[in-house]
Amino acid sequence: MRLAKYLAHAGVASRRAAERMIAEGRVSVGGHAVSDPALDVDERSAVAVDGRTLAGAEARVVYMLNKPLGVLSTARDTHGRTTVTQLLPDAGVRLYPVGRLDAHTSGLILLTNDGELANRLTHPRFEVPKTYRATVGGGTPDASALRALRSGVELEDGLTAPATVRLLSAHVLELTIREGRNRQVRRMCEHVGHPVRALERTRFGPLRLAGLACGGHRRLSARELQLLRAL
Fold this sequence. Notes:
The protein has 231 residues and is α+β, with helices and mostly antiparallel strands. It has three domains: 3-53, Structural Genomics Hypothetical 15.5 Kd Protein In mrcA-pckA Intergenic Region, Chain A; 62-124 and 207-229, 2-Layer Sandwich (Alpha-Beta Plaits); 129-204, Alpha-Beta Plaits (2-Layer Sandwich), CATH 3.30.70.1560. Helix content is 21%, strand content 27%. The protein contains six helices and 15 strands. It has helices at residues 3-9, 15-23, 115-122, 143-151, 184-191, 222-229; strands spanning 27-29, 32-33, 47-49, 52-53, 62-67, 96-97, 105-112, 130-136, 154-155, 158-159, 164-169, 172-177, 196-204, 207-208, 217-219. The strands form three sheets. Strands 5, 6, 7, 8, 11, 12, 13, 14 and 15 form a nine-stranded mixed beta sheet that branches. A four-stranded antiparallel beta sheet has the order 2-1-3-4. Strands 9-10 form a two-stranded antiparallel ribbon. α1 (3-9) packs across α2 (15-23). The radius of gyration is 20 Å and the shape is elongated. The two termini are 23 Å apart. 32% of the residues are buried. The model has no long low-confidence stretch (mean pLDDT 91).
């Protein structure tokens, strides 16, 4: 198995992050620092990160969390702020979030030690749909605003892909996007004259948030993992 993939399967980090760690000289094999992420290794290779030898591949798990407002979508924070990993029980493995929700967005976020799956779920090539409920200002969005969101709007980092949009009530939109740009839903809505006042992610691929209380979490079932890996 390639070294970067081995690190991801061992729950160290996503494959991309593992490649960076290797480039930074933090990974050794058989006591010698290595720089090739494609180096072939196995459980007998004595792979170590920051001097700590890895025991091998962990059992891979995925949790769903209903992230409250104000909680950071990161594994740790140097300023002592609450992170998503602190809201889960000790699973005996190192978990990290799949993608991000900004501190002012609540709702469905996944945490896992499966770096390969995390990479597939966040890589633009796979276009995994994510659905949000946005409470907006600026009055009730009219047909032209909805049409613009559905067609794609021109942001500072380029034209967005078409979104699926429904008007749930006078001030509430449901948007499904297949991209992962920074603060994308907020910027799209602001572009059409309806700044977001509150934002919640309600779906991630085939997974729904329904039934999970704010701050609550649960481990995904084998069936749900199968659906995610099939995306």
